[in-house]
Design a protein that fits this description.
About 70% of the residues lie in helices and about 0% in strands. It contains 16 helices and no strands. The longest helix has about 35 residues.
Length: about 400
């Protein structure tokens, strides 16, 4: 299927369809064509400028303008900046198609633009999605292997100056996107388990939104390939680019860096140079003595590694201990925090002290109310507000 990228013909066809007649006033048609061209070029140029600004922001700004309290992964920032630069350049090398009417030149610009996209935008977008998963550093050579057929098809099309391979390119690209989506579903689920096994607070760490972005991108490609939505899809693709840039910028800035501990200034309670034989059987008492009685669970977003250092055991043994108990580190820490919340509430209620859910949640070690409310509902089956209302009724009935 050959795609014609001539903006003037596109605008003309759209105006004719909107007027319902091909005999419209020629001056009115020309005026509406100019409006259509101006609107499109504003969207087209806006997406390019936004990509350039976002790229410079990620490369040169040291602080975080979106979430100052969060340190985002440096590796992800650099890859995302590279993606934004590629998206900006992509608008530059497709631009000649919108300023000339020669079909042969338009087709050649489309072939060369597609080839450059296969070399830059597509692999960088995949790498950014992979860089969001911080459980381990994934190799990048499979990405190059996946896009190699697309690059080869682009080179062959450029040499022959033909779009005959375009249907095969679309078919392969669709299969590649589906394969990446399947891989990302599995990788994101594994990443989620890794987070629950190592972190008490999942706020600003989960990346399930990347699956939504990938699925939306795949859907947009299907609509574009099969011409669903008509020629107006040209406009929608520019809007989609703007939304995609905004999402990747927001996600990069609000994703916590998990490569380094968050609390380096906390001294360990006890030290062991190496795990002794049978130490795993003693982890339960150690947790009771050092984590529960000394309330280490109140130390913000304390990680599994930090807790292992605090009680003087190997983090692998500690992780296996929670697995043997049929729970996760996240559930263990949040369970202690919720019990602490309940104790604070009961004490305040007995003394008739004014309290709020947010205050007690923060005093119980939760960094955000959303994390607390999610953990509380998962533990008790109701929200904290509903639970407190129920307890207040019980206290009132008793008195």
């Amino acid at each position: 299927m050959q795609i014609h990228w001539d903006l003037f013909n596109f605008a003309s066809r759209m105006i004719v369809l909107s007027n319902g007649s091909s005999n419209a006033n020629p001056h009115l048609v020309m005026f509406e064509q100019q409006i259509a061209k101006d609107v499109f070029m504003v969207l087209y140029g806006g997406a390019a400028v936004l990509g350039l600004v976002a790229c410079c922001y990620l490369l040169f700004r040291r602080g975080n303008a979106f979430a100052p309290e969060i340190t985002s992964p440096l590796r992800l920032r650099r890859w995302t900046a590279a993606l934004f630069a590629a998206m900006t350049l992509s608008h530059a090398w497709y631009f000649p198609m919108y300023v000339q009417n020669v079909s042969d030149h338009t087709d050649m610009c489309y072939i060369i633009g597609g080839l450059l996209d296969f070399l830059t935008v597509i692999p960088l977008a995949i790498i950014v999605l992979l860089a969001m998963l911080q459980d381990y550093k994934r190799p990048l050579w499979p990405v190059a292997l996946a896009v190699a057929p697309l690059v080869l098809a682009g080179i062959l099309s450029a040499r022959s100056r033909s779009l005959e391979l375009l249907p095969y390119v679309y078919g392969y690209f669709l299969l590649m996107c589906m394969g990446i989506l399947i891989y990302m579903v599995r990788a994101t689920r594994r990443y989620g388990r890794w987070l629950r096994d190592n972190y008490a607070d999942l706020e600003h760490k989960e990346v399930w939104q990347s699956l939504v972005v990938l699925g939306t991108t795949l859907l947009a490609f299907v609509f574009y390939t099969f011409g669903i939505g008509g020629q107006a899809h040209e406009y929608l693709m520019q809007v989609f680019d703007i939304v995609l840039i905004c999402y990747f910028l927001w996600r990069t800035e609000t994703l916590s860096d998990l490569s380094t501990p968050a609390h380096d200034d906390v001294a360990p309670v006890r030290q062991r140079t190496a795990p002794a034989h049978g130490l795993s059987r003693n982890i339960g008492p150690l947790l009771t003595q050092y984590c529960e009685q000394q309330r280490l669970y109140l130390q913000g977003d304390i990680s599994l590694s930090e807790l292992a250092k605090q009680i003087g055991v190997n983090r692998v043994y500690l992780s296996k201990h929670f697995a043997s108990q049929g729970t996760t580190y996240n559930a263990y820490i949040n369970g202690l925090r919720i019990q602490h919340f309940i104790n604070l509430y009961q004490k305040a209620a007995q003394n008739h002290q004014p309290i709020t859910v947010q205050q007690l949640a923060y005093r119980s070690g939760f960094r955000t109310y959303g994390t607390f409310n999610s953990a509380f509902k998962q533990s008790t089956g109701m929200t904290a507000t509903e639970w407190m209302r129920d307890k207040d009724e019980q206290y009132n009935n008793q008195n």
